[in-house]
Amino acid sequence: MAHSLHPYQHTLASRVSCHGIGLHSGKAVHLTISPLATDSGLVFYRRDIPGSPPLPAHMKHVIDTRLATTLGVGPLRVATVEHLLAALHGHGIDNARIDVDGPEVPIMDGSARPFLLLLAEAGRRRQHRPRRILRITRPISYHDGEARLTILPHEGLKLSGEILFDDCLIGRQRYSFDYSPENFASELAAARTFGYVEQVEELWDKGLAQGSSLDNVVAIHWDRHRVLNEDGLRYSDEFVRHKVLDLLGDLTLLGFRLHGHVHSCRAGHTQHLGLLRAIAMSPGCWQLVEQPQHEWPPPRRGVRDLWLEPADTLQSPAIPREELTLR
Known about the structure:
The protein is α+β, with helices and mostly antiparallel strands. The chain has a single domain, classed as lpxc deacetylase, domain 1 (2-Layer Sandwich). It is 19% helix and 31% strand.
């Protein structure tokens, strides 16, 4: 069943902070998420760099997709952004300032759940501008070797993922997710990143994954029949759910809420970026519209949870396609 997306943009009701470690650097990271004005989007700042320019969470700023999604402008970079972006998207946050004092977002427990709990603590505040929706009207596909992604017209957002690994523990897994904040919290947020033990050891030898441990990674045993984590798996299909979580986080880089059904098969961050670029280059296959508002009364500007009279006559105007750009 399609979820009725609230038509108005949302930000945080208050500022929240947390500490963690960077997955690859192994260094302590302090993260603060703050409210931001309408139409600002999700914007990173490096508080450890004086005069740090804003770094919007947008596909045009993706500079690396190996192992994680990394954003950058010039020498400035912020890595491993996908879990936090998934939490912000999943919780219904459109505008937020994100300050970090290092080159990575903290890995926390390897899922989006700690960020979701942090956002729940902050609360949500409705804003006075309508959300803009990129509505898929014709299929768009992207292929890269064995990996393929297709997005089809759909009312609301649906993500279907498939993975195939040559081992007994994972094998072939499929999972479909119908977006709503409630479904995100219960079905997707807690799925953790995973890897084979020998792959983690290889990354350690290369000076990477210095912050990885059984506290933030599902480690698959050498025998391929079990995991090393004492608590086991959170879901029987946690592996594919985490891949869908990553997909949701990367789709946030489109810059708009998305209405469509994404089918992903054996895809990762690199292919997710390829799909985003394919969408941007296929303007005949989508429309940018404002979320219909006739079922929702608008919030009073600047006043939390106060309402004006219902706006029954508001329309859903199309928005010029030039606004979706790779510049």
